[in-house]
């Protein structure tokens, strides 16, 4: 107990020291806090209590930004379901905007603790996303260890792995869920960006391999994982994400104001993706335009068809904002009539609107769109899994997707949807076939629903995940070992401390 009190006192002193010495630069402020906290961390080791399979587990989820997306949906569903099974669950995050999150995280159904958001900003002048995300996660983890003083049987970590050594050294058992290697999700347009990513990529591989249990979301991701992380010899286990069927069984609420603005008598071609370049939403717009340009459907049918592009949109994320503007320009250059529905907007599109951008949507809107749409077009290539096609198939909505990545494992080509080449011509041809009634949508929809019920239920995912967590918690062979990388971290910490002290004495005597 005395050590915890000492930690809190020194953290407070550290912050005051930064102000007193007028150390206002980002680097020195972080170095002061990081060095003192990590120095104390040498003397602290959580007592880890092993739980048996007959006893409820204490579980923590660590997710960097609890917004709206496939990864966030997985974390929220997993946490909710495990809590319903009697386990104690807490979600830790560095950012939780209650205006841009899933309902369960703001209505009290789940305990969400925001940590690691007071020292490091999300970016530095719009750059250094990865470095800031890593530092925020380390700050979150140190706050979790020293301030919250809770012991967890297993900690579920996803997206970022940099904090795994800290958790392991503290005595925790860690399950790392890899949605996709982060090193493959970044663009390296310049030599400087490539050099900048080298240490980050090394850290990702070293820290990922330190998890007690590694899990991925598809066979495709498993293969990419093994190719990308050559030094990790452990084969990750595959757990396909699932969906909560009851969340998609709700009836359309036509009294909801957010639904009313979407109501239309037109045929809806639906695209659901975050506003990110890697999702290749441009393909959807070009394919839609080709329906008219190439005469794939009649002029009358085209007038009666609308493309709705719905997706996660966060005004804090520069790419979301910039890409949304780029997509508008693409549509306008193709002479399409565009309407934008921004978050909290109550402006309904005019009947003439051909492309509607729905920037973030709620469950009521999702229910309406999945029930009303003619088909869903899913444009990302080599998508690691893709939860959206699962949602659509359960809603009896046929899916058109690229013949690569996770969709090859989830969509039965010609039966629950259509897999095609990743180009606008191929997509336009299949969309036209649906508009012209060449496919039996009812049969395809029924097949899709039964396929999802059989293979992608949340219960199947949760039962498998729970088995892994219980096994990990009760496995004595998984007790924490002193990581060999730790002396390197300690050395870098001491160097940082030396630089701080040097700066301090320099201010005193010069």
Automatic annotation (TrEMBL):
Protein name according to UniProt: Alpha-1,3/1,6-mannosyltransferase ALG2
Domain Glycosyl transferase family residues, every copy: 262-327, 353-450
Top-level taxon: Eukaryota
UniProt subcellular location: Endoplasmic reticulum membrane
Molecular function terms from GO: GDP-Man:Man(1)GlcNAc(2)-PP-Dol alpha-1,3-mannosyltransferase activity; GDP-Man:Man(2)GlcNAc(2)-PP-Dol alpha-1,6-mannosyltransferase activity
Family: Belongs to the glycosyltransferase group 1 family.
Source organism of the structure: Diversispora epigaea
EC number: 2.4.1.132, 2.4.1.257
The protein's role, per its UniProt record: Mannosylates Man(2)GlcNAc(2)-dolichol diphosphate and Man(1)GlcNAc(2)-dolichol diphosphate to form Man(3)GlcNAc(2)-dolichol diphosphate.
Pfam families listed in its UniProt record: Glyco_transf_4, Glycos_transf_1
Transmembrane regions: 26-43, 484-505
Residues annotated as domain Glycosyltransferase subfamily 4-like N-terminal: 68-243
Reactions performed catalytically: a beta-D-Man-(1->4)-beta-D-GlcNAc-(1->4)-alpha-D-GlcNAc-diphospho-di-trans,poly-cis-dolichol + GDP-alpha-D-mannose = an alpha-D-Man-(1->3)-beta-D-Man-(1->4)-beta-D-GlcNAc-(1->4)-alpha-D-GlcNAc-diphospho-di-trans,poly-cis-dolichol + GDP + H(+); an alpha-D-Man-(1->3)-beta-D-Man-(1->4)-beta-D-GlcNAc-(1->4)-alpha-D-GlcNAc-diphospho-di-trans,poly-cis-dolichol + GDP-alpha-D-mannose = an alpha-D-Man-(1->3)-[alpha-D-Man-(1->6)]-beta-D-Man-(1->4)-beta-D-GlcNAc-(1->4)-alpha-D-GlcNAc-diphospho-di-trans,poly-cis-dolichol + GDP + H(+)
Swiss-Prot/TrEMBL keywords: Endoplasmic reticulum, Glycosyltransferase, Membrane, Transferase, Transmembrane, Transmembrane helix
